[in-house]
Automatic annotation (TrEMBL):
The keyword Metal-binding applies. It comes from the Bacteria. Binds 1 zinc ion per subunit. It comes from Sinanaerobacter chloroacetimidivorans. This is Cysteine--tRNA ligase.
Length: 466
């Protein structure tokens, strides 16, 4: 597989450090709100990278952090009169819900800043000991100029950076380019941890250096995130980690492009700011995923209702092809004829086409085209009277490719079941336990009116939504 490496600005053959386990780190969300469609892109893109590597037989260890210590979280907690911990816990839950709707799998590890405070403090201390950082009145700053290769990822010259940098009034930096590793507590209601420099909390960049090295080791295969993170976040991560370990931090850096809304930059002030939760009111999560994968991940994409409707239609065409095949399987019989065997050989060529596209720097746009070409040929090749075996082979070819893209997942019966329904189901269970059968039947009818039927299975109640 070839991957475009931001570090070298080239498409390179991907050679993992350890063939048996590929190590990927993706910068995760700051959990103070529902995530927006710009955030959704890296989640979906790098989840697809993971699914593809797994499809090619690789084991992947995938780490994506939750930033649960941040000014935005603290401000939100003040606004709502709850604790920062309550804010982050709530939005971690909301993250899982929306990511789940987009078929984004949970990472192997989702570490949080609050759970890694000792490691963060030890890392910062080590940077001071190694001469790359200094304490200033309870703050700790990274001495950017000490790291000779600073700017290598974003291809910026340190002198140019210096001329654009400024020191904010309250900061105690020695050089405008230095950045905070540790921030002293300013007011008493601010979140703070004990450290060798007094009460305070970590700066933003240090967490990723710490969690990546802790969970994946000193050098990892791929570090990924949105293009906007290249500078300063990823540049600073490199400076911190390579100064501490003396080794390359990540061999490949992958960055996805921006999203515009109706050809404009997304911003709250323009009123074109959408969370994924907003979009899910009108579209299925898979439509959003299809939309995000329909362009190359490094190209900018434009979000509009019109394009979402196109994505919806595209996805429906795929689903129709599957439904037709399921119908043929139900009504067909027998094994493949000689003609079908020949047809299958030519249909299987689309697998190679699909793989070639994905191998070319995760070209999901071309991979989706290969699926559509496959579907078109399957529609021509199958008919009433096709053998059951042939229809099954055709269906599994479609499933094989769409599963890699995270599309057309068979919905679990319990998906989409809202709290109210869940509560009714639980209440009915209780009623049955208490032998209050009239109430149990009443609830059953109530659910039926909502299009919900309940099936008793050995594994428990199965909720079926019609
Ligand atoms: Zn990060």
């Amino acid at each position: 597989m070839k991957i475009y490496n931001t570090l070298t600005r080239k498409k390179e053959e991907f050679v993992p450090i350890d063939e048996n386990e590929i190590k990927i780190y993706v910068c995760g969300p700051t959990v103070y709100n529902y995530f927006h469609i710009g955030n959704a892109r890296p989640f979906v893109v790098f989840d697809t990278l993971r699914k593809y590597l797994e499809y090619r037989g690789k084991k992947v260890k995938f780490v994506q952090n939750f930033t649960d210590v941040d000014d935005k979280i603290i401000n939100k907690a003040r606004e709502e009169g709850i604790t920062p911990g309550e804010v982050s816990e709530k939005y971690i839950g909301e993250y899982y819900q929306d990511a789940g709707a987009l078929n984004v799998e949970k990472a192997s590890v989702h570490p949080k800043v609050t759970e890694n405070m000792n490691e963060i403090i030890a890392f910062v201390k080590d940077l001071i000991d190694k001469g790359y950082a200094y304490e200033a009145d309870g703050d700790v700053y990274y001495s950017t100029r000490k790291f000779r290769e600073y700017g290598k990822l974003s291809k910026q010259n340190i002198e140019d950076l210096e001329s654009g940098a400024r020191i904010e009034i309250e900061e105690k930096k020695q050089d405008p380019l230095d950045f905070a590793l540790w921030k002293a507590q300013k007011t008493e209601d601010e979140l703070a941890w004990e450290s060798p420099w007094g009460l305070g909390r970590p700066g933003w960049h240090i967490e990723c250096s710490v969690m990546s090295t802790k969970y994946l080791g000193e050098t990892i295969d791929i570090h990924a995130g949105g293009q906007d993170l290249t500078f300063p976040h990823h540049e600073n991560e490199i400076a911190q980690t390579e100064a501490q370990t003396g080794k390359p931090f990540a061999n490949y850096w992958m960055h996805n492009g921006y999203i515009t809304i109706d050809n404009e930059k997304m911003s709250k002030s323009k009123g074109n700011f959408f969370t994924v939760r907003d979009i899910l009111k009108d579209y299925d999560g898979e439509v959003m995923r299809f939309f995000l994968l329909s362009g190359h991940y490094r190209s900018p994409i434009n979000f509009s209702r019109e394009l979402m409707d196109q994505a919806k239609n595209g996805l429906a065409r795929m689903q129709n092809a599957k439904n037709n095949l399921k119908h043929l399987i139900q009504n067909g019989s027998g094994t493949m004829t000689a003609e079908e065997k020949t047809q299958l050989v030519s249909l299987e060529k689309y697998r190679e086409k699909f793989i070639a596209a994905m191998d070319d720097d995760l070209n999901t746009a071309d991979a989706i085209s290969a699926v559509f070409e496959l579907i078109k040929d399957i529609n021509t090749a199958t008919k009433n009277g096709s053998s059951k075996e042939f229809s099954e082979k055709c269906l599994s070819l479609i499933d094989e490719m769409t599963a890699v893209l995270g599309l057309l997942r068979e919905k679990e019966a319990s998906d989409d079941i809202d709290d109210e329904i869940q509560k009714l189901v639980e209440e009915r269970q209780e009623a049955r336990k208490a032998k209050n059968f009239s109430r149990a039947d009443e609830i059953r009818d109530l659910l039926k009116a909502k299009g919900i039927t309940l099936e008793d299975t050995p594994q428990g109640i199965r909720i079926v939504k019609s």
